[in-house]
Amino acid sequence: MTDQPYILFAPLLNPLSDEAADWHPSGALVVDEHGRILFSGNASELPERFHGLPELRRPDIIMPGFIDLHTHLPQYDCRGKFGKSLIEWLNSFVYPEEARLADESVARDMAQRFFRDLIKSGTTTAMVLGPSFKHATNIAFEEAERSGLRIILGKMQMDRLAPGSLCEDTAQSLLDTELLIRKWHRKTPLLSYAVTPRFALSCTPDLLKHCGRIAARFGTHIQTHLNESRAEIAAIMALFPEYQTYTHILEAMGLLTERTILAHNVHPTVEELSLCEAYGCAVAHCPDSNLFLGSGRFPLEQYRSTTIPFGLGSDVGAGTTLSMFHMMRCMTYVQGSSLHPFIPLYHATLGGAKALSIADQTGNFSPGKQADFIAVRIDPSFFGGMELAQLSPLAIASVIVYRSQAQDVSAAWVNGRLLMA
Ligand code: GUN
Ligand code: ZN
After folding, report:
1. Cis peptide before 368 (omega within 30 of 0)
2. 149 lines ligand 1 (CB under 6 A)
């Protein structure tokens, strides 16, 4: 909610698809008292009825806030720790770090810094894998609520092949999850729950099946990992020899739904992609993480020939930063050939909203959506003496994708309200 409606006069960049974006160098964005967009476009075309509303002016480029489709809050402080492979890295660094969040002061401090830094990086919506502990997840939700961000969050679940305090009793894990759902799912329009079984290696079939049932019962999202690295796939298939593929395991457990976000899926067979497509699942592409752990190359062209929605995720802490500017560049680098900037721009914004089935609420500036946007300062040397109005949508998208960074974000708004980082 905002206190009152307003018009923001600013240059507007509005992603429409992976092939198109609108660019209004002298733009106007009208936001109502509920934080809803009533108009976006050229200021010269502003309808009469909006004249006279309170005015704001920004010199920086205004674009939709980023959507981070996959990130781990408890791993915020263990970014950049070299591990030879996914499994070795999890055992050496991630699990010991995640165990620290049993201490509520560690959990509080990390959650505060994590959400503050999301705002500073220009991310306005994030799907977050939370701590393994009920209390720490409660704290994470409290801080998410305080941040004013749009957050989908869940307690991490593991009931086998995990060390010490991270390995839960199956029934307790489900009980805690249900409690957290009852307390937080849709508590406010900005908060919702995602049932979060880590991956098939660290969850028993019993836990996986019940996760599917709980998510169906409460209508929550599901977030888990799939087909990230060759060694991980081999270890999982050894545990589930009766299934044809990793995706077939998730299908049998009832985890493939229209509200499921599958992280990575960089090594799918054609049949597995067809399964994802048939169930309407979405994928979180995490290119920084894939490069860091040497997990593999996301088969972008194959995905683009399907209807599978996908967006970008930072996957902190295998991802080295929360910056979605970095993720957009990594998306190109992992392909090994240059991508038109509209492609990463779309997958970091509207594509993520479509993957989460919230494109009716956020992702770009279509009237009727909530006003989730950021201001990005552009290095004046880029303009070479030209006026903004002389620059094409391609030139603006190019400087945003290939030259900007988190420090260039000067402000962020969710539901039309300025967030305090
Ligand atoms: N697979 C299971 N857990 C994890 C995790 O924490 N990070 C990554 N990148 N992959 C995983
Ligand atoms: Zn992950």
Report:
1. no
2. no
